[in-house]
Amino acid sequence: xxKYEKLPDPLALEESVLKFWEQAAIFHKSxxxxxxxxxxVFYEGPPTANGKPHVGHLMARVxxxxxxxxxxxxxxxxxxxxxxxxxGLPVELEVEKSLGLQSKAEIEKFGLxxxxxxxxxxxxxxxxxxxxxxxxxxxxxxxxxxxITYTDEYIESLWWALKxxxxxxxxxxxxxxxxxxxxxxxxxSSHEVAQGYETTKDPSIFFKLRMQGPxxxxxxxxxxxxRGGEAGVRAETYFLVWTTTPWTVPxxxxxxxGPKFTYAKVRVGDEFFILAKDLVEAxxxxxxxxxxxxxxxxxxxxxxxxxxxxxxxxxAYRVVAADFVSLEDGTGxxxxxxAFGEEDYQxxxxxKLPFVNPVDLEGKFTERFALAQGQFVKDADAVIIHDLKQxxxxxxxxxx
Length: 400
Known about the structure:
By secondary structure, the chain is an alpha/beta fold. It has helices at about 10-25, 25-35, 55-75, 90-100, 105-110, 110-120, 125-135, 150-165, 190-195, 220-225, 280-285, 295-300, 340-350, 380-390, and strands at about 40-45, 80-85, 140-150, 180, 185, 205-210, 215-220, 235-245, 255, 260-270, 270-275, 290-295, 320, 335, 395-400.
């Protein structure tokens, strides 16, 4: 049998290459070779050094490293300036835990300057591990002259850029719907939200909103006899709406339908409900009869009476078309609250809907919604459900 040479130890081989790169200053020489060439600008999205690096960071940074290497080999000068992100909620939460603080008020009592200093110290906790991690993965980047986001120079550069944007007339005031932490009193990034997902049970309610206009229909004599009714009784027509966030119902300003979907007008007892035809059997468990079908496009423009009227805007409380309406859950009619949903907000901008937000920065209802004033929004779910039931606007409820 042929003899094979013993393969080199992968770890030893890796370390020898890294040692060669360092001793021969290979990264520095690669920059010197192209310093007079056309630049390719690369800005490093910096890591936060108060958390340990992991395989997720490895994958992202390997992909990131491909681009500076590629453009360097194409003959461009790619100055790879590293950086350290020293801001953000993860840093503050780490310090809060170490100090035993539970709220924004407790941070202020502790002292903002003292707290900020603790954050500055915390952010460098795993700096050496990050540097070793970056070196071991072969990511060529200048960490000796790295930028640090808490320095005056960095902060002032951001204000300089903001000023230039303002001078060009490109800055405007608007809204952006983001995840929000009422305990911390701050918006959250997608990265911060991803640090802790939980599966929870939320209230699931189907509620009724009465259609406005010449819609009440007289019941037939046979219907009246069967139900012991009286002459003059008229059947009201309601849009049947589903939500798992009852606390957003006070901020409702529109109903969205799929314009190409087929909707049904369903007789249930002495009332008529409008909902997607394909969902009737799943939603309506009482004896019922479909008396009419119509397209979503025919519903657009119809008006309704809100459960809570918090706006006098003439554009509010009408049916609009939206392409995000689905027939997977609910009734095919989506309750729209632009203050509390990204798609809702975008639709509100298109339809010029009012922006109704009766919730403060602590996640509690303000005097604008007196029924639950001072209550945390999730605690107010039960109050709103009870109120809808008392007013006979709740069709059914459960957990989702």
